[in-house]
Structures are given as C-alpha cells and as structure tokens.
Write a structure and sequence with these properties.
The protein contains 7 helices and 6 strands. It is α+β, with helices and mostly antiparallel strands. The longest helix is centred in the C-terminal third of the chain and has 12 residues, at about 145-155.
Length: about 180
C-alpha cells in the first residue's frame, strides 16, 4: 500500500505523486478515478481491487504557480541527488549543500545559490567560487517551481511504464536523442 501513484488533474496534467493507500481513499471518496493499474491486487475481507498506478481527479483543481520551500531535501530532489560538480549520484547522506557564491562573500542561502555537492568536491572548492577553484557546475541552480516539480515526477516515474504517456517522455527523449 506504499507504492507510488501518479495523480492527474481532470485535464490529464500531472500534479502530484501519492501512495497507493491515499489513492484508494480518494477513489472510494469519489474524488478520483483509476486511469491505470500496476498489476497488483489489493485484498480486504470483502473486497479485491486492482492497485492503481495513475489516478485522475474528478474535479479540476487550480494549481497556482508557487515555489517550494527552500530545504535540503528539496535541493537534493531538484538536483536528483547528484553532485553538481563531478556529476556522480550519491545517497542523500553522502551529499552536502554548497553555496556557489560563498556565504563569507555575501552569498545567500537561496535557490539560485545552493547546489547538491559531494563532500570531496565541497572540500576541493572550499571558500572560493567555482571559477576560482577551476570547477564547473553541471547546471546553474534555479528555483524549485511547478515545472521543476514535474521534472521530479518524471524522474520518479521512470520505473513505472504506465506513467510514461502522462509525463511526456517520448517527445522529450526524441529531442535529447536518447
């Protein structure tokens, strides 16, 4: 009951990811309908139901443009737990946050100045800018907007084939030549 379920707005726009348990509650309350199943069957004493992998809300929810709160977890999600200097992916416990413009030089703790960084690269960069240390960022840091949230849903959904048609993989992969 802890599997991930993609939540779509009535317009088929991906808006969230929830657990199977939460999806089942939404279905029974009439708030959502099942669009795709994941192949598992959930059983209760009197009922068996196919476990959903994609659900769609029955009423449109207006999602205003908003930024997520600045936190270590959200920075690591935005950067896919990948060091933004060496490009290696690490478990979250082995990553630090690096201020691109060091705090001692007026750098703020903000979306556009914080990146995920492995301990080795963080030590190598030290209290310098990337240019001064001869290091280059894979991507310039930016705010965690709804667009970035969709990128994270795509990343999480790579393991679930039923999500692909709702997350626009095919067009994206053709553009990147994958």
């Amino acid at each position: 009951m802890n599997g991930r379920v993609l939540v779509l707005n009535t317009s088929f726009e991906p808006i969230n990811v929830c657990t199977e348990r939460r999806a089942i509650v939404m279905i029974f309350k009439g708030v959502a309908r099942v669009e795709e199943h994941n192949g598992h069957v959930l059983h209760s004493q009197k009922l068996s139901i196919h476990a959903p992998s994609v659900i769609r809300l029955t009423e449109y929810i207006h999602i205003p443009f908003e930024r997520r709160s600045l936190s270590r977890k959200n920075i690591l999600l935005r950067d896919h737990s990948t060091c933004q200097y060496c490009g290696k992916q690490y478990p979250p416990s082995e990553l630090t946050l690096d201020h691109v413009q060091p705090r001692s030089r007026g750098g703020e703790s903000a979306w556009d100045n914080l990146v995920a960084c492995c301990k080795r690269c963080n030590h190598k960069k030290g209290n310098r800018t990337p240019e001064e240390s001869g290091m280059h960022l894979l991507r310039r840091p930016r705010g965690f907007s709804l667009h970035v949230n969709r990128q994270i849903m795509r990343y999480l959904g790579r393991a679930d084939e039923t999500w692909r048609k709702y997350l626009f993989y095919d067009a994206e992969e053709r553009t990147r030549g994958e």
